[in-house]
TrEMBL record:
<dbReference type="InterPro" id="IPR000045">
    <property type="entry name" value="Prepilin_IV_endopep_pep"/>
</dbReference>
<feature type="transmembrane region" description="Helical">
    <location>
        <begin position="63"/>
        <end position="81"/>
    </location>
</feature>
<feature type="transmembrane region" description="Helical">
    <location>
        <begin position="87"/>
        <end position="109"/>
    </location>
</feature>
<dbReference type="GO" id="GO:0004190">
    <property type="term" value="F:aspartic-type endopeptidase activity"/>
</dbReference>
<keyword id="KW-1133">Transmembrane helix</keyword>
<feature type="transmembrane region" description="Helical">
    <location>
        <begin position="121"/>
        <end position="152"/>
    </location>
</feature>
<comment type="similarity">
    <text>Belongs to the peptidase A24 family.</text>
</comment>
<dbReference type="GO" id="GO:0005886">
    <property type="term" value="C:plasma membrane"/>
</dbReference>
<dbReference type="InterPro" id="IPR050882">
    <property type="entry name" value="Prepilin_peptidase/N-MTase"/>
</dbReference>
<feature type="transmembrane region" description="Helical">
    <location>
        <begin position="172"/>
        <end position="193"/>
    </location>
</feature>
<keyword id="KW-0472">Membrane</keyword>
<dbReference type="GO" id="GO:0006465">
    <property type="term" value="P:signal peptide processing"/>
</dbReference>
<protein>
    <recommendedName>
        <fullName>Prepilin type IV endopeptidase peptidase domain-containing protein</fullName>
    </recommendedName>
</protein>
<dbReference type="Pfam" id="PF01478">
    <property type="entry name" value="Peptidase_A24"/>
</dbReference>
<keyword id="KW-0812">Transmembrane</keyword>
<dbReference type="InterPro" id="IPR014032">
    <property type="entry name" value="Peptidase_A24A_bac"/>
</dbReference>
<feature type="domain" description="Prepilin type IV endopeptidase peptidase">
    <location>
        <begin position="43"/>
        <end position="149"/>
    </location>
</feature>
Length: 194
């Protein structure tokens, strides 16, 4: 993604953070997952890292990365790693409900808390993770961003309108939820049943 230019921000050619993260993702997925599931995880993890980095610097999520990650997530449905029903419910939890909340918040406060790139990212994560893991991802991302906002407010002073990019928190929470479901499947099975 070094060629991608978003409002003048471009990842430098000699910056290897994405490559190092991607190698780690491929290695973990090769050791912990079935081949197709591992491939989808590693591809999505690398794209999420790039999205997070760009959003952190520019407060924008490139549509190209959303399209590519959507295609990868849809392959998970085609290869029956995620059921179509689970993917649809995941999209409802990851995109439609947050979009409705954005609309409601805007009607009440005339402010928009999340951007539409975050809604698109919720679509990708919803297809990939399904409804339960997506709900946990939204909760985790919200909690993590709140903690960071409180820390920044403590360090730099309280500012009610301080903006934070939400994609990095969605990515961290989504990847953490997925990895957690690999190591603690009985917990996630319990959450699905109740």
């Amino acid at each position: 993604v070094n060629w991608l230019n978003v409002d003048g921000f471009q990842i430098k050619n000699n910056d290897y953070k994405i490559e190092i993260f991607s190698v780690g993702s491929w290695l973990w997925s090769a050791l912990s997952l079935q081949p197709m599931e591992g491939t989808i995880f590693a591809l999505i993890a690398g794209i999420l890292f790039a999205i997070s980095w760009i959003d952190f610097k520019t407060y924008q999520i490139p549509l190209l990365l959303i399209i590519v990650s959507s295609i990868v997530a849809i392959f998970g449905v085609l290869f029956k790693l995620t059921s179509l029903k689970s993917a649809i419910y995941g999209v409802i939890v990851g995109s439609i409900i947050p979009l409705a909340l954005i609309g409601l918040t805007y009607l009440i406060t005339k402010r928009q808390g999340m951007g539409f790139g975050d809604i698109q990212l919720g679509f990708v994560l919803g297809v990939w993770l399904g409804p339960v893991r997506m709900a946990l991802t939204l909760f985790g991302a919200s909690l993590l961003s709140l903690v960071v906002w409180l820390i920044l407010s403590g360090i730099k002073g309280f500012e009610r309108d301080r903006a934070l990019p939400f994609a990095p928190y969605l990515a961290i929470a989504g990847l953490g939820t997925f990895v957690g479901s690999v190591y603690f499947p009985s917990l996630f099975h319990y959450l699905i049943l109740y």
